[in-house]
Amino acid sequence: MSGFKLTGSLALVTGGTRGIGLASARALAQGGLDVILVGRDEAELARAADDLRSTGQTIHVEAFDLGKPTEIAAWFADLRARIGTPDVLVNAAGMSRRGPAVDLTLEDWDVVMSLNTTAIWELSRRFAQALIAEGRPGRVINIASLMTAAARNGTSPYTASKGAVGQLTKVLAVEWAKDNILVNAIAPGYIETDLNRALKDDPEFDSWVRGRCPLGRWGQPVDIAGPVAFLASEAAGFITGQTIYVDGGWLSTF
To answer: Is 158 a catalytic residue?
Structure first.
């Protein structure tokens, strides 16, 4: 199993204080990588870092709002000067605003697209620029969604943003293949996270998810963390431009 050794020594995980981001950061730290956690809430960052330090790895925290993509370049340059250039980037930060398209506002659209898509493009390209300049390989792992391939009423900004993540993953993989920067995405199904708490707490929706998913349950963040660690490992060295659906079989049935 030596091929499953993680590549590099430092990972940057956005949305790293909870849910899929935190579970992914834990898996990478358990695999031997130091981790930079990125989030907006300093108290939550401190709590998550204290939790992850039990792995024995160095955990850095970065309080930064990725919803302001024009500020990413300066922030990332400063981060590199202080901590170093990461080898692995996990783009896990995300949000949703739900409602019928005719009732949502342009501001709803812009806020979701800014964090879920524009920030991924900007941070990923700054990450790639740094690695190319240093002549180093790297891994980008984007958190896409079941909505990258499917749709549900009331999710137009989120669905559009995650569809874009799937295509962005492909084009960046093609552009950066010559630089040995591998770009892949993981598309979770319905995962029990804070983002989905209102859906999970709705008995009718909860029953629909359990009945619709072939495995008969909601996913857990740890279900996504394993594939993240795999894509960061040497075993995934010939995989790029792919979106891996971790959805309990959702897309395989109707």
So the answer is: yes
Tokens of 116: 């879920």
Q: What pTM did the predictor assign?
A: 0.96
Length of the chain, please?
Answer: 254
Closest to 63 (Cα-Cα) out of 14, 126, 9: 14
Q: Which of 158, 176, 218, 230 is catalytic?
A: 158
**Cα–Cα distance, 50 to 243 (Å, whole number):** 32
Say which DSSP state 8 is in.
Answer: S
Q: Which of 46, 48, 58 is nearest to 22 (CA)?
A: 48
Contact 43, 17 (CB under 8 A): no
pLDDT by 10s per residue, the chain, length 254: 777 999 999 999 999 999 999 999 999 999 999 999 999 999 999 999 999 999 999 999 999 999 999 999 999 999 999 999 999 999 999 999 999 999 999 999 999 999 999 999 999 999 999 999 999 999 999 999 999 999 999 999 999 999 999 999 999 999 999 999 999 999 999 999 887 888 889 999 999 999 999 999 999 999 999 999 999 999 999 999 999 999 999 999 98
Q: How far is CA 243 from CA 18, 128, 169, in A?
A: 22, 19, 8
Separation CA 173–CA 169 (nearest Å): 6
